[in-house]
Every structure is written in structure tokens, then in C-alpha cells.
Amino acid sequence: MSARSRLRPWRARLLFVTGGGGFLGSHIVNGPAGDRWETFAPPSKSMDVRNTTSVMQTIREWHPTAIVHCAYRKDEHDTIVTGSVNVAQAAHQIGARLIHISSDLVFPGRLSPYSEVDDTRPMIQYGRDKLEAEHGVALADPNAVIVRTSVLYGRRRLSPAQVDTVKVLRGEKSMSFFTDEIRSFTDVDDLAAAVAWLADERDISGVLHVAGPQPMSRADFARVTAEQQGLSTAHLHVSTTEASGQVRPTRVVLDSTRAYKLGIRMNPVTGRD
User: Fold this and answer.
1) % of the chain with per-residue pLDDT over 90
2) Contact between 208 and 259 (Cβ < 8 Å)
3) C-alpha to C-alpha distance for 165 and 172, rounded to whole angstroms
């Protein structure tokens, strides 16, 4: 029996998710996409996105209607860039709809929000890798939608950023939270719902910013996390990027006006639910 024949026969459409074991990928696989799609996320050991042959063979076998590419490893150029291009080429060859997940860190930071048409100029290597991946995906599959988002958080399940913050609040880890690093913190359930909707909207292509509407500093987000989790801020240490000596973007806020005009809605960060 082939892998595909194990799918429920009444579900004709397949949403194929790379990085399905990650924070966003798991929310897509187990979220609202399941109401309209059969979902499948291959484990990395069965499909190495860096291997062109592996990607093409797997995607041809499953022949999905749409693909969401979430897989990445932050410090691996080949996974981010080569893997993204491999998935985009395979999607284009079989005519699958592709949603590629990118990052706000393609921008260097400034006072005003960034729209999709603004110059990028990333400051850090991860941002440079993500931008190179965007360019490769756009060339390989001009019909793909490239979703730029920001720092993810969860309400039902904590994101890696939230887990680290909780460890600090409990005194289990030491970390400074910067008052001048401003991001568009994004509810992972909102993003997963947006991705599921975009999988059906083939007339939308190119770069699309999909991020939370409420700019917030890392320090303020840590305080909100403390409130949500009922934890003290006694162990919370705040600082600035300048004081830390780190070279990294500070205020990077995404303007998601285009997404909102399409009907995509994202919730602001709130305190205790």
C-alpha cells in the first residue's frame, strides 16, 4: 500500500506541510486547515528538503493540491535557501499552490512600519538567508505567495520564545529582554488560519505581510507572558540592544494592510485570558 492510499478516500484535496513538527507547522496541520483539507507533513527523515531528488520524488508521489513550506533550521543556509528553492521548483512542476513562510528579519529596522514594497537590507545572517530564499522561491514559482511574519506566540501551546521567557521568569535561565527591540508579535492560530485560507486563494501571489497589529517590545511581551502565566517579574531583566553590544535589528514592524484588505484578521497581544 502506498503512503498516499492511507489517506481518507473522501478527502480529495491534500495540503502538504513541510516542517509540520515545528510550532507553526503543527498548528497548520492540526488547525483550521483540517476542516477543508487532508493534511500531510512528511518527517524530515523521509524527505530532506536540501535534497532535490528527495523533494521531487516525495511531492510527485503525494501530488498535493497545495504546499505550505515552513521547514527551516535557523543556522543552516542550505536548509533555508536550497530547501526552499527545491520545494518551490517541485510545487511549480506539479502545479501545486505554494505558500512560503518568511520573516520580518529581511528588514534592518526603522521607526515606520514596513510594507511589502519597501527595501529589505537584512542586518543578520538569518535575515540574509531568508531573503535569498524569497528570491529563489519567486524565480522558481512566480505564482507562490511569500508570507512574511514576525515573532510567533501561542495561547494553547507556548512558542519557543514564550518557553524561554517562562524559564527566565522562574529563575531557571538568564536572559535580557530589550526595551528597544520592537516586533509585530503574531498569534500562531491566527497565522495558521490565514495560511489555510491562502491555500485556496490562487489569485494572490507575491509577498504578503501577515503579522500582529500591535507593535510591542521584547520586554513588554515578557511582562505580558508573566501576566498570562501568573508568574512574578522578579527575575525579569530588561536592557537595550545598545547596552548589550549586539548588532541586530531593533524596531521591525510589519504593515499588514494588504492582508487586512483581503479579509485576514490578526488579534493583538493581550494579558491573562
Assistant:
1) 85
2) yes
3) 10
